[in-house]
Amino acid sequence: MEQLSSIEAWRNYANDQRAFGHAVALVPTMGALHDGHASLFRAARASGDVVIATIFVNPRQFGSAADLKSYPRTPHEDAVVAKENGVDCLVEPSLEEMWPDYPNSTSTTVSVHGIGDSLEGADRPGHFDGVASVVAKLFAVTGPCHAYFGEKDFQQLAVVRQMVRDLALPVEIIGCPIVRDPDGLAISSRNGQLSANGREQALAISRALRAVDAPATPSTLRRRMREVLEDAHVQTAYVEIVQPTTFVVAHDGDEGEFRALIAGIVEGVRLIDNAPVTLSSREA
Ligand code: AMP
Fold this sequence. Notes:
By secondary structure, the protein is of the alpha/beta class. It folds into 2 domains: 2-176, Rossmann fold (3-Layer(aba) Sandwich); 191-276, Pantoate--beta-alanine Ligase, Chain: A,domain 2 (2-Layer Sandwich), CATH 3.30.1300.10. The chain has helices at 7-19, 35-46, 65-70, 75-84, 95-98, 120-123, 127-142, 154-167, 196-210, 218-231; strands spanning 2-4, 24-29, 50-55, 89-91, 145-150, 171-176, 235-242, 256-266, 269-279. The strands form 2 sheets. A 6-stranded parallel beta sheet has the order 1-4-3-2-5-6, with helices on both faces. The chain has a 3-stranded antiparallel beta sheet with strand order 7-8-9, with helices on one face. β2, α2 (35-46) and β3 (50-55) form a beta-alpha-beta unit. α7 (127-142) crosses α8 (154-167). The structure holds adenosine monophosphate. Residues 29-30, 36-37, 39-40, 149-150, 152-153, 176, 178-179, 186-189 line the site of adenosine monophosphate.
């Protein structure tokens, strides 16, 4: 596995691969790699592409300096996970090259309005501007590629898809399913911050999503999810059902395939999860 850090070397690597006739896959991450990330590496590998993974803890998408500081960093373990799961080239760009003006603000920002304004975007002002801006830069350096993202961050996936469509970026986005621990908890780099009790409490989030697997109206489905979460005393930032590409909130009378999304806060740790739901205008 190749390991690079400079933008020039990374751009040359991708250009060379395409010149050899290989398709390039890009898997952006913030490191602290786990089975969720590994599943993206394996999906990219299985497609036959040359796999470039990036690790960059992007300060522009964090709301507070404390959250940024406490974000887990495990560079040595990450290199092993990347190598074992089929990554050909691991890129860890420096902050100086990614955001040369940091900690001063960067003049250029990519904003995806509409999709990026609600839910995570409303609770974490500037978060999706930071995400869209860094992903645009990762795409600009990598060039034409297939880019793999997890459905775990479902709103992020929708924001990135919209950005690619609006700017005609030469990138095909591939969404991959959520990887869960055997108890149902969606795997996240933040799960390690939970105590044993906190983890038990956090299971209510995936339980709430499993409780809405039968078609019903959005009001009924939201109520069912809230009941499960309230029973477990899980504080929530939102419990919502949206149209999966536009993120328009579902109303009673809507029918078809939508997405239920939950953000819970357990022991001060923000946990997000989501699942497909079918809306019916009649109750089950
Ligand atoms: P992060 O390092 O948290 O920025 O995540 C990097 C990529 O891995 C994003 O596309 C995430 O959606 C994806 N990812 C994180 N956790 C999971 C998971 N449990 N299942 C699937 N994809 C995930």
